Amino acid sequence: MIKKYKNFLFDFDGTLVNSNSIHKIAFKKTLNYKRKKVKFDYENLKGLKTEDAFKKIGIKSEIKHYSKLKRNFYKKQIRKIKLYNSVKKTLNFLGKNGKKIFIVSGASKENIKYVLKKEKIKVDGIISREDSKYSKPNIMPYKKCLKKFKLEKNKTIAVEDAISGIRSARKNKLKSIGINNYKIKNFSDFYYKNFSIFYKNLLLK
Fold it and tell me: Cys staple from 83: which of 9, 37, 87, 204, with CB 3.0 to 4.6 Å?
């Protein structure tokens, strides 16, 4: 069933790479640095631009300053980011079988390219936070990708680890694959616990 899709649109943080914990720590460090005792559930911030995440947390002023601090904390830890197990062989398998691979993420293009270069991964296109004024669950990130790369919706599927991404895909009338997060199992059209299982499913005839 999955093989019928030609274009695979992957989220980045928490989907392809194990960066969620680093993002969470960066938010905490920023709030502690600014002496803001604010509790938050990172699950509700997944997929959002940093500015939008702070607004959702309840920060009402100095958003740009908070965001800059958070990004600086994150960049100091970027070398710790790694691909999840079986991600690389999954992407290689898709590419060798004529599938196109795109990344649609609220992450910066610089960070995405850093990891892709380090891991020697090539993709057919990237939509990052610099490309869309609005972040998921807004319709725009996936809409931008579909339009820029002239993708047919019925041949395209999104791969996400967060409900915000699933909602963004749905608004574009795209089917979705949920991965790495059991909380979205019932929201996605297909679900795999991890990339190892996803890869094995792709091998099935």
Answer: 87
**pTM for the predicted model, two decimal places:** 0.88
Please state the domain count of the chain.
Answer: 2
Label residues 87-123 b or e (16+ Cβ within 10 Å = b): bbebbeebbeeebbbbbbbbbbeebbeebbeeeebeb
With 0-12 / 13-18 / 19 or more C-beta atoms within 10 angstroms meaning exposed / middle / buried, residue 29 is middle
Tell me, yes or no, whether 13 and 57 share the same domain.
no
In this structure, the answer to whether residues 180 and 121 fall within a common structural domain is yes
Share of the chain above pLDDT 70, in %: 99
Name, in order, each residue with C-beta under 8 angstroms of 141's C-beta and a sequence gap of 6 or more: 104, 105, 106, 127, 131, 132, 134, 135, 168
SS3 category, 9: strand
Q: Output the pLDDT for position 1.
A: 67
Q: What is the pLDDT of residue 82?
A: 93
**How far is residue 168's CA from residue 166's CA, in Å, rounded to a whole number?**
5
CA distance 11 to 59: 26
Sign of the Cα torsion 36, 136, 101, 177 reads positive
